[in-house]
Write a structure and sequence with these properties.
By secondary structure, the chain is mainly α. Helix 1 packs across helix 2, helix 1 packs across helix 6 and helix 2 runs parallel beside helix 4.
């Protein structure tokens, strides 16, 4: 089931404890762009189908990562893309967005997503056990 844009952003805003919808949207755009660069094939398409259309398009952008980023480098890359962000605030942003993505994806698809990513991403998605 596809989440509506408002519901998706409500979840991100609540989890990130952002004061404004704009902060939640900024975090979602950056994190989904980076995530999309790491996913391929049917898994990427299935996840996009469960996201609001404008966020699905960001995920499906033809940007590709030259090499998979470790979870730590993913957080640092997020910090580099968000003006004024630190590693700590970027980790917060990543957690708010990816936990919302995990809910939208569901258990089975999340497991397939994690298979395409380096070890340790389960924690970024809010899971305490690898899928």
């Amino acid at each position: 089931m596809t989440l509506r844009r408002e519901a998706f952003l409500d979840h991100v805003q609540e989890r990130g404890e952002y004061e404004s919808r704009q902060e939640a949207e900024r975090a979602a755009r950056v994190v989904l762009a980076l995530l999309g660069a790491h996913l391929v094939g049917e898994v990427r398409a299935q996840l996009a189908a469960r996201l609001p259309e404008d966020f699905a398009l960001i995920l499906l952008n033809p940007m590709h990562s030259a090499e998979p980023l470790s979870p730590e480098r993913f957080v640092r890359a997020t910090a580099a893309w968000i003006e004024g962000a630190t590693t700590q605030t970027a980790a917060w942003d990543v957690g708010a967005v990816l936990s919302t993505v995990a809910d939208a994806a569901g258990h089975d698809l999340l497991g397939q997503i994690l298979l395409q990513l380096p070890a340790g991403y389960d924690l970024l998605f809010g899971s305490t056990q690898p899928t």
